[in-house]
């Protein structure tokens, strides 16, 4: 990377370059507009008169040269004869062109002129160029020869004034000049701001999690200094993130070995307690069970940390497969007596282990931090807005089709025999037959809705709960990694998670694309209106 100088930039600074560019552009525009105004006054008649005067001078110039040579040799008689020839030519031109024509010597004195012509005895000096620009063109034309003689040419009948033509010339020239200056100013602004736009795009990528982005540090101005600081910041952030992920992965791996050893030691101690009396053995078994529960919780925490580090590194979602979401959720819900699953057959391209973590963590969160019982709804949706509305047929556990066709639930999907509570039931709904099915858009998403009886999460906390190690109620148990892990799993599947208040209760809404090639969805936590 090129070195960047911090300090005074002088004329290389953005402000100086912008000021100079705009100043030069305005100056150029002013000069061009003045010249354009002069061009509007100089119409085609003026140009035609100059062309005629130049042709007359070309025709009489040989006679002028001869008269000049004879005068220098003191042969005045022959010189006068040449001037008479020139005078006769002027009269002929006067008769055909109806113009005043005169000839002046190199000192500006009148030598001869056509009949009925009142020309000044001497030529006036040319006015300053500023006056020539702002003043209208004179009615006569003065053309000089190579020998210094001057020809005066002026129409006896003035040319008719055509103000509309002058205004048209001025207007068309102004439009052309404005177009050119606009293109120049656009090029100036683009040359100055394109690096700012590039820096803005790279900052957006950095905000999206791509810490490998860098920008060019070309130049020696404020933008180069800003680019240098951005690259340094991005490099340090990337190093910190990599070190953090590596530390989590290594620490989690190191934790596994002592956990396994402690569990093995407890089992060995349990074998040794067979010789103890019943009361002492009961106390030991109670303590051992407590230790095993703590070890299980610690092992789950280690697994969560490992999974978080793999998700951060982008290695968790590798091979995907077709997953039956209903069966996956059913296998988890049956372990929670106060959870109910009502849904329809839904399959997605995903990694089943990650989705299992997702469902388990959301159920644990609802049971620990929410208020049971918990309803889990599974259904299709065509877009994000439709996903926020739970189908009424799921809410009622059946759909009204035709007269009274009620969707059935399969008996082999009932709860395990050991589950006896009234809320322990699972209902699997099927879509209506194609002939009775209303015309909906093609489903693009699978939607999982987890609803507990809580009053909802405060709006100012809805983004914080997806951060690692965040717990709204510190007295509740838990590591604070559950929802963070859920958010990362959803993001890895290019999905979206929403938390809101639905019919007065807490809802977590997970929206997953049906195919693995779908574009990532925006993350959102908003209070959406409930459907009734």
Automatic annotation (TrEMBL):
Gene3D superfamilies (alphabetical): 1.10.287.130, 6.10.340.10, Histidine kinase-like ATPase, C-terminal domain
Stated name of the protein: histidine kinase
One matching Pfam family: HATPase_c
TM regions (residue ranges): 18-40, 166-188
EC number: 2.7.13.3
Major subcellular location class: membrane
Native organism: Moraxella canis
Catalytic activity: ATP + protein L-histidine = ADP + protein N-phospho-L-histidine
Keyword list, A-Z: ATP-binding, Cell membrane, Kinase, Membrane, Nucleotide-binding, Phosphoprotein, Transferase, Transmembrane, Transmembrane helix
The Histidine kinase domain, residue ranges: 250-516
Membrane topology, record value: Multi-pass membrane protein
Enzyme kind, highest EC tier: transferase
GO MF term list: ATP binding; phosphorelay sensor kinase activity
Intracellular or extracellular location(s): Cell membrane
Superkingdom of this protein's organism: Bacteria
All copies of domain HAMP, residue ranges: 190-242
Cellular component per GO, a single term: plasma membrane
Database matches in PROSITE patterns: HAMP (PS50885), HIS_KIN (PS50109)
């Amino acid at each position: 990377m090129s070195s960047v100088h911090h300090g005074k930039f002088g004329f290389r600074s953005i402000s100086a370059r912008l000021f100079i560019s705009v100043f030069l552009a305005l100056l150029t525009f002013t000069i061009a507009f003045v010249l354009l105004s002069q061009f509007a006054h100089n119409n085609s008649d003026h140009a035609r008169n100059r062309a005629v005067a130049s042709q007359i001078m070309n025709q009489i110039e040989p006679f002028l040269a001869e008269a000049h040579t004879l005068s220098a040799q003191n042969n005045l008689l022959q010189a006068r004869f040449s001037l008479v020839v020139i005078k006769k030519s002027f009269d002929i031109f006067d008769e055909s062109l109806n113009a005043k024509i005169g000839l002046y010597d190199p000192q500006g004195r009148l030598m001869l002129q056509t009949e009925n012509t009142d020309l000044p005895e001497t030529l006036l000096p040319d006015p300053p160029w500023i006056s020539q620009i702002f003043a209208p063109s004179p009615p006569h034309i003065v053309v000089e020869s190579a020998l210094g003689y001057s020809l005066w040419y002026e129409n006896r009948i003035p040319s008719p004034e055509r103000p509309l033509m002058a205004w048209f010339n001025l207007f068309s020239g102004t439009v052309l000049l404005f177009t050119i200056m606009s293109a120049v100013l656009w090029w100036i602004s683009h040359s100055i701001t394109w690096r700012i736009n590039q820096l803005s795009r790279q900052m957006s990528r950095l905000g999206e999690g791509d810490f490998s982005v860098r920008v060019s540090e070309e130049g020696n101005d404020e933008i180069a200094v800003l680019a240098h600081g951005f690259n340094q910041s991005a490099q340090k952030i990337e190093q910190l993130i990599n070190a953090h992920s590596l530390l989590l992965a290594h620490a989690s791996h190191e934790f596994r070995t002592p956990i396994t050893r402690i569990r093995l030691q407890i089992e060995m101690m349990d074998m040794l307690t067979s010789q103890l009396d019943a009361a002492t053995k009961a106390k030991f078994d109670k303590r051992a069970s407590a230790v095993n529960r703590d070890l299980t919780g610690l092992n789950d925490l280690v697994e969560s940390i490992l999974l978080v580090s793999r998700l951060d590194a982008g290695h968790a979602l590798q091979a995907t497969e077709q997953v039956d979401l209903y069966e996956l959720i059913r296998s988890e819900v049956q372990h929670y007596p106060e959870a109910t699953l009502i849904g329809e057959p839904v399959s997605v391209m995903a990694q089943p282990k990650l989705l299992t973590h997702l469902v388990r963590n959301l159920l644990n969160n609802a049971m620990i931090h929410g208020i049971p019982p918990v309803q889990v709804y599974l259904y299709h949706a065509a877009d994000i807005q439709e996903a926020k509305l739970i189908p009424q047929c799921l809410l009622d556990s059946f759909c009204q089709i035709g007269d009274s066709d009620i969707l059935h639930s399969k008996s082999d999907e009932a709860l395990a025999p050991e589950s006896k509570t009234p809320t322990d039931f699972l209902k699997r709904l099927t879509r209506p037959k194609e002939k009775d099915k209303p015309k909906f858009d093609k489903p693009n998403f699978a939607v999982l809705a987890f609803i507990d009886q809580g009053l909802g999460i405060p709006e100012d906390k809805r983004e914080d709960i997806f951060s690692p190690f965040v717990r709204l109620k510190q007295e509740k148990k838990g590591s604070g990694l559950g929802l963070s892990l859920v958010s990362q799993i959803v993001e890895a599947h290019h999905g979206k998670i929403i938390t809101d208040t639905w019919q007065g209760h807490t809802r977590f809404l997970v929206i997953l694309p049906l195919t693995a090639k779908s574009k990532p969805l925006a993350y959102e936590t908003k209070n959406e209106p409930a459907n009734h």
